[in-house]
Write a structure and sequence with these properties.
CATH superfamily of chain A: HUPs
Number of strands of chain B: 16
Number of strands of chain A: 13
Number of helices of chain A: 6
Oligomer: heterodimer
Largest interface: A-B, 78 and 92 residues
Number of helices of chain B: 9
CATH architecture of chain A: 3-Layer(aba) Sandwich
Radius of gyration of chain A: 21 Å
Helix content of chain B: 25-40%
Structural class of chain A: alpha/beta
Shape of chain B: globular
Strand content of chain B: 25-35%
CATH topology of the largest domain in chain B: Rossmann fold
Order of helices and strands of chain A: EEEHEHEHEHEEEEHEEEH
Strand content of chain A: 25-35%
Number of domains of chain B: 2
Radius of gyration of chain B: 21 Å
Shape of chain A: globular
Order of helices and strands of chain B: EHEHEHEHEEEEEEEEHHEHEHEEH
Largest sheet of chain A: 9 strands, mixed
Strand order of the largest sheet of chain A: 9-8-7-10-6-1-4-5-11
CATH superfamily of the largest domain in chain B: HUPs
Number of domains of chain A: 1
Strand order of the largest sheet of chain B: 5-9-4-1-2-3-10
Distance between the termini of chain B: 50 Å
Chain lengths: ~250, ~325
């Protein structure tokens, strides 16, 4: 079966994010960009399915500027077979992303779409669910483990109270949580090989999707700062203070 | 102008997250209706009817909703959505699983995890793991939002809403529940506890993590963890506090052996008082802590436990 893995180019998770002084957004100039960590987990899971002989082809898709092809190359270096770049310099909101992915799914007909549960830039946690709904497919979000059958999949999900397993009919969408796997590093030979793998370039218009933003971002500001407090010498002193503050029973 | 709130419950009890979401809903569009979807959950509907500000409770009681799986829930909410200007769910794993499906089918963008309602169509929400706050205006039409519940006070109880049964549309049968492992705990729930004590990598092992238990018992506190501690296998995933785990805002948050990665801070920095216990006095956790104890946690924890016992906490 074919597996489609949407991957997003985001600010690297180790970079300290700075809000622009004019509050128009976050400063992305000269900042290291990487694949969204949850999407790396998605690529890894797809590769494991391929190594087990369950997936026949793994396709990485990214939506973004020309540089998003680097993110696709990362997926190709991890082992994905080919890439699709939907090129745009515009902000693409989650619903528009889901519509683009639906158009690609309609063309590629994968049995499984695996993507991160959220991107670490806008933290929306929407695309997988929206894509599943637009396709009329079931979903297994926040995946902790996957047991893939021929016509269905058992997906164990990280939920607030613990773990929940759902059985979904294929085709389906799965979104990854942190504990699904530990993504591999691409080896040098695989990075070289990835350079020769094909990346097909499309535009949203080619796919018939209107990506005009629907939201108006009025500003992006610094979160309220919490003043640092005092260091205390003993647990006795700590309990006295907490009692005075009224936070201890 | 009416808003619909998806109730958070486990068929037996209504969760506090619902009351908090009702508070947010009342700031967007009133009156507020609450949808209780589940199986044998009439008691939950009665509890929801007592929330102040709720005009009507819709009760969808059918086997298909026993686990509130996303696919049947999407169909149910869509069957009701016409009558509402705003549809809200708490940003729990249930709400986050369901609501984007509804939004997509209504061709309406969703605003995730709002922390403040500035006007009925304008919201603040954390982005970049809480490193920035985005102020966003939703387009005209229906408003669909999930609510970070720690940012809103719970609506009081004292109301008397009517309960109306709603019909269950046919289930697509695309998904079915196949089991669960829920953490059993006598302690309060992480997201609603008044005191939370969390451990990080500094605790070193699953065994050592139990050092928190005795203190948690004395304080009637919930136990949480940093992502590092969960990844290391000290505790299960549902302990995780942070941007990708649970957001908590108790009266008192005690961080033990947690360095304070930004993604952890994002999940707890709205706590009223924060205490940090860490051997590294330079750890970022001290920048948000009201009180810090710098030292070996394996010495400090037993001392704290003993001091609590001495002062009559048990």
């Amino acid at each position: 079966m074919k597996v489609l893995v949407p991957v997003k180019r985001v600010i690297d998770y180790n970079v300290k994010v700075r809000v622009k002084a004019d509050q128009s957004g976050v400063d992305l100039a000269n900042v290291k960009m990487s694949m969204n960590p949850f999407d790396e987990i998605a690529v890894e899971e797809a590769m494991r399915l391929k190594e087990k002989g369950k997936a026949t082809e793994v396709i990485a898709v990214s939506i973004g500027p020309g540089q998003a092809s680097e993110t696709i190359r990362t997926a190709l270096a991890m082992g994905a077979d080919r890439g699709i770049l939907v090129k745009t310099d515009q902000t693409v909101e989650p619903l528009a992303v889901a519509k683009i992915l639906k158009a690609i799914v309609d063309i590629e007909q994968p049995a499984l779409v695996i993507t991160g549960k959220q991107a670490i830039d806008d933290d929306s946690n929407q695309v997988g669910q929206m894509l599943a709904a637009l396709l009329g497919w079931p979903q297994g979000t926040f995946a902790h483990s996957l047991e893939l059958g021929d016509s269905s999949a058992k997906i164990t999900r990280e939920i607030d109270g613990g773990l929940q397993t759902v059985e979904v009919k294929l085709p389906a969408v799965m979104t990854t949580d942190l504990r699904l796997n530990e993504p591999r590093y691409a080896s040098l030979p695989n990075i070289m090989k990835a350079k020769k793998k094909p990346i097909d370039e499309k535009s949203a218009a080619d796919l018939g999707v209107d990506i005009t933003p629907r939201f108006k971002v009025l500003k992006v500001s610094e979160p309220p700062k919490r003043g640092g407090g005092v260091k205390l010498a003993s647990v006795g002193e700590l309990l006295d203070r907490l009692k005075t503050d009224g936070v201890l029973p | 102008m009416t808003s619909l709130v998806l109730a958070e419950h486990d068929n037996a009890a209504l969760k506090d997250a619902t009351h908090k979401t009702v508070t947010a809903a009342a700031q967007i569009s009133t009156p507020v209706h609450v949808l209780v979807a589940g199986e044998n959950c009439a008691g939950v509907a009665e509890a929801a009817a007592k929330i102040t500000g709720v005009e009507k409770v819709l009760l969808a009681d059918a086997p298909a909703y026993a686990r509130q799986l996303a696919e049947p829930m999407e169909t149910l909410i869509l069957s009701l959505a016409d009558k509402y200007d705003a549809v809200l769910a708490p940003a729990t794993t249930t709400g986050k699983n369901i609501l984007p499906r509804v939004a997509a089918k209504l061709d309406t963008p969703q605003v995730s995890e709002i922390v403040r309602v500035l006007s009925p169509d304008t919201f603040e929400r954390p982005i970049y793991a809480g490193n920035a706050i985005e102020t966003v205006q939703a387009p005209a039409g229906k408003t669909i939002v999930t609510v970070r519940t720690t940012a809103f006070v719970a609506a009081a109880e004292g109301g008397q809403a009517v309960i109306e049964k709603v019909a269950a549309p046919a289930d697509s049968g695309l998904s079915k529940f196949a089991g669960e492992t829920l953490s059993k705990s006598e302690r309060p729930e992480l997201t609603s506890a008044r005191i939370v004590i969390s451990g990080g990598r500094g605790l070193g092992s699953r065994e050592n993590f139990k050092l928190l238990d005795s203190i948690a018992d004395k304080l009637h506190a919930a136990v949480g963890a940093s992502r590092a501690a969960v990844d290391a296998g000290f505790v299960p995933n549902d302990y995780q506090v942070g941007q990708t785990g649970k957001a908590v805002a108790p009266d008192l948050y005690i961080a033990v052996g947690i360095s304070g990665a930004i993604q952890h801070l994002a999940g707890m920095k709205d706590s009223r008082k924060i205490v940090a216990i860490n051997k590294d006095g330079e750890a970022p956790i001290f920048q948000v802590a009201d009180y810090g104890l710098v030292g070996d946690l394996f010495k400090i924890l037993p001392e704290l436990d003993e001091e609590l016992a001495k002062r009559g906490y048990k």
